[in-house]
């Protein structure tokens, strides 16, 4: 079920799933990890947007019920946590790859890689 939702969403974002990638060199492995991480990042962002929409629906249908309002606030918090985790995972991967590919460049290669 999740695959049926994520693959069309990923293709709409222009993300191609990492399928049948021959890994023969370390560079191929890094490209595989980058494409896999980008696909996961896209899925997390799409799911977070879904959580935000559901939270908005809960706010609209709460009708003054404090429990539903608190539940909607919790879902907004979960959506924000999901986006923060996605951004930090992308940043950590970028930092690691920048240092592994060219450790002599230092922080400038990390900044260029992330931007």
Keywords:
mainly alpha; elongated; 115 residues
Describe the largest sheet: none
Radius of gyration: 18 Å
Strand count? 0
Q: Structural class of the secondary structure composition?
A: mainly alpha
Give me the strand/helix succession. HHHH
Helix content: over 70%
What fraction of residues sit in β-strands?
Answer: under 5%
Described by its quaternary structure, the protein is single chain
Summarize model confidence as the mean pLDDT.
76
Q: How many individual helices?
A: 4
The end-to-end span amounts to: 34 Å
Overall, the morphology is elongated
Low-confidence residue ranges: none
Give your account of this protein's structure.
The chain has 115 residues and is mostly helical. Helix content is 79%, strand content 0%. The protein has a domain at 38-115. The protein is built from four helices and no strands. Helix 2 (26-61) packs antiparallel against helix 3 (66-101) and helix 3 (66-101) packs across helix 4.
What is shown here, in short?
The chain has 115 residues and is mostly helical. The chain is built from four helices and no strands.
List the helices and strands and how they pair.
Elements: H1 2-12, H2 26-61, H3 66-101, H4 107-114
Helix pairs in contact: 2-3, 3-4
